[in-house]
Amino acid sequence: MPLPRLPRRPAPAQSCGARRAALLRRDGDRVPVGGRIGQSGGGAARAVRPVSNDPLARARHLIVQTLGAGISHRIEPDRKLIDDLGADSLDLIELQCAIEDLGADAPDSAFHRGMRVSDVAALIPGGIGA
């Protein structure tokens, strides 16, 4: 006689590293050769501690660390991360992890296709609307 099935427990919340690894497995073909992940020159894999107290400057710093220095001249508060700055889903997860490293709450629902630079600044401690 087969054993009765036990109800499934809800999955625990994933850490940033687990979300990043899951996305890499799912969208592995989207990560460019020689991409930012695992390189010592940038990316949100290391703790980033911006020196400015201005939330917009801190957001700009995190975005440059995540997306690369080549876009620093294009970062304005009304720019969309995906459509205007060329971020992809992995970049959003790295940015989310960098914000969490600053001690801020960065819920998954806050990171969406239409997210703007000003939305990132609002998530940073002491940010817009905080």
Describe the fold and architecture.
This protein has 130 residues and is mainly α. It has a domain at 16-23 and 50-123: Non-ribosomal Peptide Synthetase Peptidyl Carrier Protein, Chain A (Orthogonal Bundle). 34% of the residues lie in helices and 0% in strands. It has four helices and no strands. It is elongated. The N and C termini lie far apart (59 Å). Residues 27-50 have low confidence and may be disordered. Residues 53-128 form the Carrier domain. It holds the Pfam family PP-binding.
Write the layout of secondary structure elements.
Layout: H1 16-26, H2 55-67, H3 89-101, H4 117-123
Helix content percent band: 25-40%
Beginning-to-end CA distance, first to last residue: 59 Å
Q: What is the CATH level 1 assignment of the domain at 16-23 and 50-123? A: Mainly Alpha
What share of residues are in beta strands? Answer: under 5%
Instruction: Indicate the structural class.
Output: mainly alpha
SSE string, helix = H, strand = E? HHHH
Unreliable sequence segments: 27-50
Rg, alpha carbons: 17 Å
Number of strands: 0
Outline, from the CA principal axes? elongated
Total helices: the number is 4
The largest sheet, given as strand count, sense and whether it forms a barrel, is:
none
CATH architecture identity of the domain at 16-23 and 50-123: Orthogonal Bundle
Give the CATH H-level superfamily of the domain at 16-23 and 50-123: ACP-like
Mean pLDDT: 74
The name CATH uses for the topology of the domain at 16-23 and 50-123 is Non-ribosomal Peptide Synthetase Peptidyl Carrier Protein, Chain A
